[in-house]
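So, does this match?
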Amino acid sequence: MKVSRFIFNMFGVNTYVVWDPETREAVVIDPGMTDAREREALDDFFKRNGLHPTQLVNTHMHLDHIFGDAWVRDRYGLGVRAGAEDEFLGLSLKDAIAQYRLPVQAENTGIDVPLKDGDTVTVGGEPLEVIAVPGHSPGSIALYSRESGFVITGDALFKGSIGRTDLPGGDFATLTDSIRKRLLTLPPETVILPGHGEETTVGDELRTNPFVR
C-alpha cells in the first residue's frame, strides 16, 4: 500500500491518497482543496497513476479538512465516510466559512457512511483499521495500517503536539486519554501521518511529546 500527501488550503491540511499499486484502487482522506488549482492537482495525480478513487474518508469534519468533500463526492460518485458524531460540523460548513470570513466556497457535507471504532476501510486487499480518537472533535478517527505500519491521525496527534480542544465538541482530557490509550499503544515503529505538518513515529512521540508523556 502506498500513501501520497498533498498540502492544501490556507491551513496547510495534509490530504492523503492511500492506494494499492496492483488494483489501482485509491482512498481519498481529508480532501482540503479550495480552488481549481488544488482540485486539478489531485485529479492529475489520479490520471497519471491510473488510479480509481473508491472511497472518501474524513478523519474529522472541521472545515479545513472537508472543503473538498463535495467536489470529490460529485466527481467520483463517492459517499462521505466519517465518525457520526462529527456530522453537525459538516452540516454547518457554510456557516463556519462565513464566521471566519474565509474566501472559500463549499457545500455543507453530511455523512453517507458512518464509521465507528473497529470498522475497516479496505484498499485493494489491505485493511485500514478505524480507531476512535475523540477529543479534538467528538467523532475524530484514526486510520491504522497494521500491515504497512502507519497510522493517519487527523488532528488528534502531531509531531511534538496534539490537536486543539477549544472548538465545539473538543475536550482536552478526552483527547489526551485517546492518544495515550489508542495511538501510543501501537508499535513504536509505527509512522504517524498527521493532519498538518510532518510525519513522526509512535516511539518518538512517547519519548518527546510534552502533552502526553
In short: The CA atoms of residues 32 and 180 lie 28 Å apart. The first strand starts at residue 2 and ends at 8.
